[in-house]
Write a sequence for this structure.
Protein backbone atom coordinates (compact mmCIF):
# COMPACT_ATOMS: atom_id res chain seq x y z
CA UNK A 1 0.00 0.00 0.00
CA UNK A 2 1.35 3.24 -1.03
CA UNK A 3 1.69 6.27 1.17
CA UNK A 4 -0.85 8.91 0.20
CA UNK A 5 -0.15 12.59 0.53
CA UNK A 6 -2.36 15.63 0.11
CA UNK A 7 -0.28 18.74 -0.33
CA UNK A 8 -2.99 21.36 -0.32
CA UNK A 9 -5.32 22.03 2.57
CA UNK A 10 -6.40 25.64 2.72
CA UNK A 11 -5.39 27.47 5.83
CA UNK A 12 -8.20 28.92 7.89
CA UNK A 13 -7.88 30.87 11.07
CA UNK A 14 -10.64 28.67 12.43
CA UNK A 15 -8.65 26.12 14.39
CA UNK A 16 -11.58 23.81 14.96
CA UNK A 17 -12.28 23.50 11.25
CA UNK A 18 -8.63 22.87 10.46
CA UNK A 19 -8.59 20.10 13.04
CA UNK A 20 -11.74 18.65 11.50
CA UNK A 21 -10.21 18.62 8.04
CA UNK A 22 -7.05 16.93 9.25
CA UNK A 23 -9.04 14.32 11.14
CA UNK A 24 -11.05 13.56 8.01
CA UNK A 25 -7.85 13.30 5.98
CA UNK A 26 -6.45 10.82 8.47
CA UNK A 27 -9.67 8.83 8.28
CA UNK A 28 -9.43 8.70 4.49
CA UNK A 29 -5.90 7.34 4.64
CA UNK A 30 -3.65 10.31 3.92
CA UNK A 31 -0.46 9.97 5.93
CA UNK A 32 0.84 13.47 5.23
CA UNK A 33 -1.03 16.71 4.63
CA UNK A 34 0.25 20.23 4.01
CA UNK A 35 -1.54 23.36 5.17
CA UNK A 36 -1.50 25.91 2.42
CA UNK A 37 -0.90 29.61 3.12
CA UNK A 38 -1.73 31.70 0.05
CA UNK A 39 -0.10 35.09 -0.45
CA UNK A 40 -1.39 37.32 -3.22
CA UNK A 41 0.59 40.55 -3.56
CA UNK A 42 -2.05 42.17 -5.72
CA UNK A 43 -4.25 42.52 -2.72
CA UNK A 44 -3.14 45.13 -0.25
CA UNK A 45 -1.27 44.50 2.95
CA UNK A 46 -0.04 41.07 2.03
CA UNK A 47 3.19 39.80 3.35
CA UNK A 48 4.74 36.44 3.97
CA UNK A 49 4.31 35.72 7.61
CA UNK A 50 5.79 33.03 9.74
CA UNK A 51 4.08 29.68 9.43
CA UNK A 52 1.87 28.46 12.19
CA UNK A 53 3.44 26.10 14.65
CA UNK A 54 2.03 22.69 13.90
CA UNK A 55 2.32 21.17 17.32
CA UNK A 56 -0.17 23.79 18.54
CA UNK A 57 -2.91 22.24 16.42
CA UNK A 58 -3.31 18.94 18.19
CA UNK A 59 -2.27 17.50 21.47
CA UNK A 60 -2.39 14.08 19.93
CA UNK A 61 -2.45 13.76 16.15
CA UNK A 62 -5.09 11.43 14.73
CA UNK A 63 -3.95 7.97 13.60
CA UNK A 64 -3.90 7.33 9.87
CA UNK A 65 -6.36 4.78 8.51
CA UNK A 66 -4.72 1.40 8.00
CA UNK A 67 -1.46 2.49 9.66
CA UNK A 68 -0.39 2.84 13.23
CA UNK A 69 1.37 6.16 12.82
CA UNK A 70 -0.09 9.59 13.50
CA UNK A 71 -0.65 11.94 10.58
CA UNK A 72 2.16 14.29 9.59
CA UNK A 73 1.28 17.93 9.00
CA UNK A 74 3.46 20.37 7.06
CA UNK A 75 3.37 24.03 6.11
CA UNK A 76 3.19 25.17 2.55
CA UNK A 77 3.39 28.61 1.00
CA UNK A 78 1.76 29.55 -2.29
CA UNK A 79 2.76 32.84 -3.85
CA UNK A 80 0.47 34.20 -6.55
CA UNK A 81 2.87 35.85 -8.98
CA UNK A 82 1.55 38.41 -11.44
CA UNK A 83 4.73 40.50 -11.57
CA UNK A 84 8.31 39.38 -11.60
CA UNK A 85 9.11 41.28 -8.39
CA UNK A 86 6.64 39.27 -6.33
CA UNK A 87 8.66 36.16 -5.78
CA UNK A 88 11.84 36.52 -3.80
CA UNK A 89 13.59 33.96 -1.68
CA UNK A 90 13.60 35.51 1.74
CA UNK A 91 14.20 34.05 5.15
CA UNK A 92 10.46 33.77 5.75
CA UNK A 93 10.07 31.60 2.69
CA UNK A 94 12.68 29.22 3.99
CA UNK A 95 10.58 28.51 7.08
CA UNK A 96 7.99 26.67 5.02
CA UNK A 97 8.36 23.01 4.13
CA UNK A 98 7.07 23.45 0.60
CA UNK A 99 6.98 26.52 -1.62
CA UNK A 100 4.64 26.85 -4.58
CA UNK A 101 4.04 29.59 -7.13
CA UNK A 102 0.97 30.38 -9.17
CA UNK A 103 2.20 32.20 -12.29
CA UNK A 104 -0.36 34.40 -14.01
CA UNK A 105 1.40 35.11 -17.29
CA UNK A 106 3.34 33.08 -19.78
CA UNK A 107 6.60 34.91 -19.08
CA UNK A 108 6.35 34.20 -15.39
CA UNK A 109 5.40 30.60 -16.06
CA UNK A 110 8.59 30.28 -18.07
CA UNK A 111 10.61 31.87 -15.30
CA UNK A 112 8.97 29.68 -12.66
CA UNK A 113 9.74 26.54 -14.61
CA UNK A 114 13.33 27.41 -15.42
CA UNK A 115 14.77 29.53 -12.62
CA UNK A 116 12.61 29.94 -9.52
CA UNK A 117 13.60 27.94 -6.50
CA UNK A 118 10.20 26.30 -5.90
CA UNK A 119 8.77 22.83 -5.58
CA UNK A 120 5.33 23.18 -7.11
CA UNK A 121 3.80 25.24 -9.90
CA UNK A 122 0.03 25.62 -9.61
CA UNK A 123 -2.20 25.41 -12.65
CA UNK A 124 -5.30 27.60 -12.92
CA UNK A 125 -8.49 25.67 -12.24
CA UNK A 126 -11.04 28.44 -11.79
CA UNK A 127 -10.57 30.13 -15.15
CA UNK A 128 -9.52 29.29 -18.66
CA UNK A 129 -5.76 28.95 -18.89
CA UNK A 130 -4.61 32.35 -20.20
CA UNK A 131 -1.63 30.92 -22.09
CA UNK A 132 -0.53 27.73 -23.76
CA UNK A 133 1.89 25.35 -22.11
CA UNK A 134 4.96 25.23 -24.27
CA UNK A 135 7.32 22.32 -24.45
CA UNK A 136 10.65 23.95 -23.40
CA UNK A 137 9.59 25.34 -20.00
CA UNK A 138 7.57 22.23 -19.12
CA UNK A 139 10.44 19.95 -20.05
CA UNK A 140 12.82 22.18 -18.13
CA UNK A 141 10.61 21.93 -15.05
CA UNK A 142 10.43 18.15 -15.33
CA UNK A 143 14.19 17.99 -15.58
CA UNK A 144 14.62 20.20 -12.51
CA UNK A 145 12.14 18.10 -10.55
CA UNK A 146 9.49 20.79 -10.18
CA UNK A 147 5.91 19.53 -10.07
CA UNK A 148 2.67 20.81 -11.57
CA UNK A 149 -0.34 20.85 -9.33
CA UNK A 150 -4.00 20.48 -10.19
CA UNK A 151 -6.44 21.06 -7.37
CA UNK A 152 -9.78 19.31 -7.64
CA UNK A 153 -11.93 21.19 -5.16
CA UNK A 154 -13.21 23.65 -7.76
CA UNK A 155 -14.30 20.75 -9.93
CA UNK A 156 -16.39 19.35 -7.12
CA UNK A 157 -18.04 22.63 -6.27
CA UNK A 158 -19.21 23.89 -9.62
CA UNK A 159 -20.02 22.62 -13.10
CA UNK A 160 -18.32 25.36 -15.15
CA UNK A 161 -15.23 25.20 -12.96
CA UNK A 162 -15.14 21.50 -13.63
CA UNK A 163 -14.95 22.17 -17.35
CA UNK A 164 -12.06 24.58 -16.86
CA UNK A 165 -10.26 22.15 -14.57
CA UNK A 166 -10.57 19.24 -16.96
CA UNK A 167 -9.67 21.25 -20.07
CA UNK A 168 -6.67 22.90 -18.38
CA UNK A 169 -5.53 19.55 -17.05
CA UNK A 170 -5.78 18.01 -20.50
CA UNK A 171 -3.79 20.80 -22.11
CA UNK A 172 -1.08 20.29 -19.47
CA UNK A 173 -1.04 16.54 -20.09
CA UNK A 174 -0.52 17.12 -23.78
CA UNK A 175 2.81 18.77 -23.13
CA UNK A 176 3.95 17.02 -19.98
CA UNK A 177 2.67 13.54 -20.98
CA UNK A 178 1.52 12.87 -17.45
CA UNK A 179 4.94 13.27 -15.88
CA UNK A 180 5.50 15.35 -12.74
CA UNK A 181 1.85 16.00 -12.02
CA UNK A 182 0.29 16.23 -8.57
CA UNK A 183 -3.43 16.12 -7.86
CA UNK A 184 -4.33 17.73 -4.56
CA UNK A 185 -7.47 18.86 -2.81
CA UNK A 186 -7.37 22.49 -1.78
CA UNK A 187 -10.18 21.72 0.63
CA UNK A 188 -11.68 24.37 2.87
CA UNK A 189 -14.20 22.07 4.52
CA UNK A 190 -13.91 18.47 5.65
CA UNK A 191 -16.60 17.39 3.20
CA UNK A 192 -14.57 18.61 0.25
CA UNK A 193 -11.89 15.98 0.70
CA UNK A 194 -12.01 12.75 -1.28
CA UNK A 195 -10.39 9.39 -0.74
CA UNK A 196 -7.01 8.74 -2.37
CA UNK A 197 -8.28 5.92 -4.57
CA UNK A 198 -11.13 8.09 -5.79
CA UNK A 199 -8.63 10.77 -6.72
CA UNK A 200 -6.46 8.27 -8.54
CA UNK A 201 -9.53 7.38 -10.53
CA UNK A 202 -10.44 11.02 -11.01
CA UNK A 203 -7.02 11.42 -12.58
CA UNK A 204 -8.30 9.39 -15.50
CA UNK A 205 -10.71 12.22 -16.26
CA UNK A 206 -7.77 14.63 -16.21
CA UNK A 207 -6.06 12.61 -18.92
CA UNK A 208 -3.57 10.75 -16.74
CA UNK A 209 -2.85 7.09 -17.27
CA UNK A 210 -3.61 4.66 -14.45
CA UNK A 211 -0.05 4.49 -13.18
CA UNK A 212 0.50 8.22 -13.45
CA UNK A 213 -2.78 8.93 -11.70
CA UNK A 214 -1.77 6.85 -8.71
CA UNK A 215 1.68 8.40 -8.69
CA UNK A 216 0.01 11.83 -8.67
CA UNK A 217 -1.32 11.24 -5.15
CA UNK A 218 1.54 9.20 -3.75
CA UNK A 219 5.09 9.05 -5.13
CA UNK A 220 5.11 12.39 -6.95
CA UNK A 221 3.96 14.16 -3.79
CA UNK A 222 6.73 12.48 -1.85
CA UNK A 223 9.24 13.58 -4.43
CA UNK A 224 7.97 17.16 -4.10
CA UNK A 225 8.36 16.93 -0.33
CA UNK A 226 11.93 15.74 -0.65
CA UNK A 227 12.60 18.50 -3.15
CA UNK A 228 11.37 20.95 -0.54
CA UNK A 229 13.68 19.43 2.03
CA UNK A 230 16.71 20.07 -0.16
CA UNK A 231 16.08 23.79 0.12
CA UNK A 232 16.22 23.71 3.90
CA UNK A 233 19.27 21.51 4.02
CA UNK A 234 22.42 21.76 1.93
CA UNK A 235 20.99 19.89 -1.08
CA UNK A 236 19.71 17.22 1.25
CA UNK A 237 23.21 16.09 2.22
CA UNK A 238 23.83 17.97 5.44
CA UNK A 239 21.21 19.13 7.86
CA UNK A 240 22.00 21.37 10.76
CA UNK A 241 19.79 21.63 13.81
CA UNK A 242 20.17 23.95 16.74
CA UNK A 243 20.47 22.01 19.95
CA UNK A 244 17.70 23.09 22.32
CA UNK A 245 19.45 24.25 25.52
CA UNK A 246 22.82 22.68 26.07
CA UNK A 247 24.60 25.96 26.91
CA UNK A 248 22.71 26.74 30.07
CA UNK A 249 23.30 23.29 31.47
CA UNK A 250 26.95 23.27 30.58
CA UNK A 251 27.47 26.57 32.31
CA UNK A 252 25.91 25.22 35.44
CA UNK A 253 28.11 22.17 35.29
CA UNK A 254 31.18 24.29 34.76
CA UNK A 255 30.29 26.48 37.67
CA UNK A 256 29.94 23.44 39.85
CA UNK A 257 33.06 21.85 38.51
CA UNK A 258 35.15 24.99 38.61
CA UNK A 259 35.31 25.44 42.34
CA UNK A 260 35.82 21.70 42.83
CA UNK A 261 38.97 21.78 40.74
CA UNK A 262 40.19 24.82 42.57
CA UNK A 263 39.47 23.13 45.82
CA UNK A 264 41.42 20.09 44.70
CA UNK A 265 44.32 22.33 43.75
CA UNK A 266 44.31 24.14 47.01
CA UNK A 267 44.17 20.86 48.88
CA UNK A 268 47.12 19.59 46.87
CA UNK A 269 49.08 22.65 47.75
CA UNK B 1 -21.81 -21.08 -19.45
CA UNK B 2 -20.70 -17.49 -19.47
CA UNK B 3 -21.96 -15.15 -16.85
CA UNK B 4 -22.17 -11.38 -16.89
CA UNK B 5 -19.18 -9.93 -15.13
CA UNK B 6 -19.93 -7.19 -12.63
CA UNK B 7 -17.97 -4.95 -10.36
CA UNK B 8 -19.04 -4.20 -6.83
CA UNK B 9 -17.91 -0.92 -5.35
CA UNK B 10 -17.78 -0.88 -1.58
CA UNK B 11 -18.19 2.75 -0.57
CA UNK B 12 -18.44 4.58 2.67
CA UNK B 13 -20.72 7.59 3.01
CA UNK B 14 -18.90 10.20 5.08
CA UNK B 15 -21.07 12.80 6.77
CA UNK B 16 -20.25 15.45 9.30
CA UNK B 17 -23.12 14.46 11.54
CA UNK B 18 -23.52 10.72 12.18
CA UNK B 19 -27.22 10.93 12.99
CA UNK B 20 -28.11 12.22 9.53
CA UNK B 21 -27.16 8.82 8.11
CA UNK B 22 -30.45 7.47 9.43
CA UNK B 23 -32.31 9.56 6.87
CA UNK B 24 -30.78 7.74 3.94
CA UNK B 25 -32.34 4.91 2.01
CA UNK B 26 -31.29 2.93 -1.04
CA UNK B 27 -33.48 4.86 -3.43
CA UNK B 28 -31.93 8.18 -2.39
CA UNK B 29 -28.42 6.87 -2.96
CA UNK B 30 -29.50 5.39 -6.28
CA UNK B 31 -30.84 8.70 -7.61
CA UNK B 32 -27.84 10.62 -6.28
CA UNK B 33 -25.32 8.36 -8.02
CA UNK B 34 -27.31 8.27 -11.21
CA UNK B 35 -27.60 12.05 -11.22
CA UNK B 36 -23.86 12.41 -10.67
CA UNK B 37 -23.06 10.06 -13.56
CA UNK B 38 -25.31 11.91 -15.99
CA UNK B 39 -23.90 15.19 -14.71
CA UNK B 40 -20.31 14.15 -15.26
CA UNK B 41 -20.59 11.97 -18.36
CA UNK B 42 -23.76 13.14 -20.02
CA UNK B 43 -26.42 10.96 -21.61
CA UNK B 44 -23.93 8.52 -23.04
CA UNK B 45 -22.32 7.77 -19.68
CA UNK B 46 -25.66 7.58 -17.91
CA UNK B 47 -26.94 5.09 -20.46
CA UNK B 48 -23.86 2.85 -20.16
CA UNK B 49 -23.84 2.93 -16.39
CA UNK B 50 -27.53 2.26 -16.00
CA UNK B 51 -27.10 -1.28 -17.36
CA UNK B 52 -27.51 -3.51 -14.31
CA UNK B 53 -26.68 -0.66 -11.96
CA UNK B 54 -28.06 -1.24 -8.48
CA UNK B 55 -27.55 -0.28 -4.88
CA UNK B 56 -27.25 -3.72 -3.33
CA UNK B 57 -26.92 -2.82 0.31
CA UNK B 58 -27.00 0.20 2.55
CA UNK B 59 -26.14 0.26 6.20
CA UNK B 60 -27.74 3.29 7.77
CA UNK B 61 -25.58 3.00 10.91
CA UNK B 62 -22.13 2.91 9.37
CA UNK B 63 -22.97 4.44 5.99
CA UNK B 64 -21.60 1.50 4.05
CA UNK B 65 -22.95 1.16 0.51
CA UNK B 66 -22.55 -1.58 -2.08
CA UNK B 67 -22.93 -0.45 -5.68
CA UNK B 68 -23.09 -2.88 -8.56
CA UNK B 69 -22.44 -2.19 -12.22
CA UNK B 70 -21.06 -3.90 -15.32
CA UNK B 71 -17.35 -4.59 -15.39
CA UNK B 72 -16.82 -2.77 -18.68
CA UNK B 73 -18.01 0.61 -17.43
CA UNK B 74 -17.26 0.69 -13.73
CA UNK B 75 -14.56 3.30 -14.18
CA UNK B 76 -17.12 5.69 -15.61
CA UNK B 77 -19.26 5.20 -12.55
CA UNK B 78 -16.32 5.46 -10.17
CA UNK B 79 -14.98 8.67 -11.68
CA UNK B 80 -18.40 10.28 -11.21
CA UNK B 81 -18.55 9.42 -7.50
CA UNK B 82 -16.20 12.22 -6.28
CA UNK B 83 -18.60 14.81 -7.67
CA UNK B 84 -21.38 13.87 -5.27
CA UNK B 85 -21.66 16.50 -2.56
CA UNK B 86 -25.05 15.71 -1.12
CA UNK B 87 -27.77 13.08 -1.14
CA UNK B 88 -31.37 14.17 -1.15
CA UNK B 89 -33.65 12.05 0.93
CA UNK B 90 -37.17 12.60 2.23
CA UNK B 91 -37.07 16.24 1.26
CA UNK B 92 -33.82 16.87 3.11
CA UNK B 93 -30.37 17.42 1.68
CA UNK B 94 -27.70 15.47 3.51
CA UNK B 95 -24.24 16.85 2.68
CA UNK B 96 -21.85 13.94 2.35
CA UNK B 97 -19.19 12.37 0.18
CA UNK B 98 -18.45 8.90 -1.10
CA UNK B 99 -15.21 7.26 -0.11
CA UNK B 100 -14.52 4.14 -2.10
CA UNK B 101 -12.96 1.46 0.09
CA UNK B 102 -12.78 -1.56 -2.16
CA UNK B 103 -13.65 -2.76 -5.64
CA UNK B 104 -14.42 -6.41 -6.03
CA UNK B 105 -15.61 -8.86 -8.64
CA UNK B 106 -18.09 -10.57 -6.36
CA UNK B 107 -20.16 -9.37 -3.48
CA UNK B 108 -18.51 -12.04 -1.31
CA UNK B 109 -15.01 -10.62 -1.58
CA UNK B 110 -16.40 -7.19 -0.75
CA UNK B 111 -18.09 -8.60 2.33
CA UNK B 112 -14.88 -10.25 3.45
CA UNK B 113 -13.04 -6.98 3.02
CA UNK B 114 -15.73 -5.11 4.93
CA UNK B 115 -15.46 -7.42 7.92
CA UNK B 116 -11.71 -6.96 8.02
CA UNK B 117 -12.12 -3.22 7.63
CA UNK B 118 -14.64 -3.02 10.43
CA UNK B 119 -12.44 -4.91 12.86
CA UNK B 120 -9.72 -2.39 12.05
CA UNK B 121 -12.15 0.43 12.76
CA UNK B 122 -12.99 -1.13 16.08
CA UNK B 123 -9.34 -1.16 17.06
CA UNK B 124 -9.02 2.46 16.02
CA UNK B 125 -12.04 3.43 18.05
CA UNK B 126 -10.91 1.52 21.12
CA UNK B 127 -8.08 4.00 21.47
CA UNK B 128 -10.62 6.70 22.22
CA UNK B 129 -11.87 4.84 25.28
CA UNK B 130 -10.95 6.74 28.37
CA UNK B 131 -11.22 4.05 31.00
CA UNK B 132 -11.02 0.30 31.31
CA UNK B 133 -14.72 0.12 32.14
CA UNK B 134 -15.65 1.66 28.80
CA UNK B 135 -13.44 -0.80 27.01
CA UNK B 136 -15.10 -3.72 28.75
CA UNK B 137 -18.48 -2.36 27.87
CA UNK B 138 -17.55 -2.26 24.19
CA UNK B 139 -16.22 -5.80 24.34
CA UNK B 140 -19.46 -6.96 25.94
CA UNK B 141 -21.53 -5.22 23.28
CA UNK B 142 -19.56 -6.87 20.49
CA UNK B 143 -19.76 -10.29 22.07
CA UNK B 144 -23.49 -10.03 22.62
CA UNK B 145 -23.97 -9.29 18.93
CA UNK B 146 -21.99 -12.21 17.66
CA UNK B 147 -23.24 -14.84 20.10
CA UNK B 148 -26.89 -13.97 19.55
CA UNK B 149 -26.90 -14.72 15.86
CA UNK B 150 -24.93 -17.78 14.90
CA UNK B 151 -24.70 -18.80 11.29
CA UNK B 152 -25.34 -16.63 8.31
CA UNK B 153 -26.24 -13.40 9.92
CA UNK B 154 -23.25 -13.41 12.19
CA UNK B 155 -21.11 -11.25 9.98
CA UNK B 156 -23.77 -8.72 9.31
CA UNK B 157 -24.49 -8.34 12.97
CA UNK B 158 -20.83 -7.87 13.58
CA UNK B 159 -20.88 -4.87 11.33
CA UNK B 160 -23.77 -3.35 13.16
CA UNK B 161 -21.87 -3.76 16.37
CA UNK B 162 -18.97 -1.84 14.95
CA UNK B 163 -21.30 0.84 13.71
CA UNK B 164 -22.59 1.46 17.16
CA UNK B 165 -19.06 1.65 18.43
CA UNK B 166 -18.18 4.28 15.90
CA UNK B 167 -20.95 6.55 16.96
CA UNK B 168 -20.29 5.88 20.54
CA UNK B 169 -16.56 6.33 20.24
CA UNK B 170 -16.85 9.80 18.80
CA UNK B 171 -19.29 11.07 21.35
Amino acid sequence: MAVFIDLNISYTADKKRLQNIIETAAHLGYSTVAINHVVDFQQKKQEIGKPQCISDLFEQFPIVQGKSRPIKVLNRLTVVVSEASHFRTTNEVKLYDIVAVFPKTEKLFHAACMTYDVDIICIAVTEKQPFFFKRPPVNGAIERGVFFEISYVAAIKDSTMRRYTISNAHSLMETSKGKNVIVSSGAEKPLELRGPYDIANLGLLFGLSEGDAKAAVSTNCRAALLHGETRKTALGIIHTVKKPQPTAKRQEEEEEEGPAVKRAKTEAM
Amino acid sequence: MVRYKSRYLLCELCVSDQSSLQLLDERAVFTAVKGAVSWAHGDYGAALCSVSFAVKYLNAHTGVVFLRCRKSHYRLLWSALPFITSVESRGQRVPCFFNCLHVGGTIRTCQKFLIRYNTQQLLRMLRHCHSEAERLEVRKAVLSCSVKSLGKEEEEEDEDGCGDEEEWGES
About this structure: Chain A has one domain: 4-242. The domain at 4-242 of chain A is CATH 3.20.20.140 (TIM Barrel). Chain A has a mean pLDDT of 77. Chain A touches chain B at residues 20, 24, 27-28, 63, 65-66, 152, 155-157, 159, 162, 190-195, 197-199, 201-202, 204-205 (CB under 8 Å).
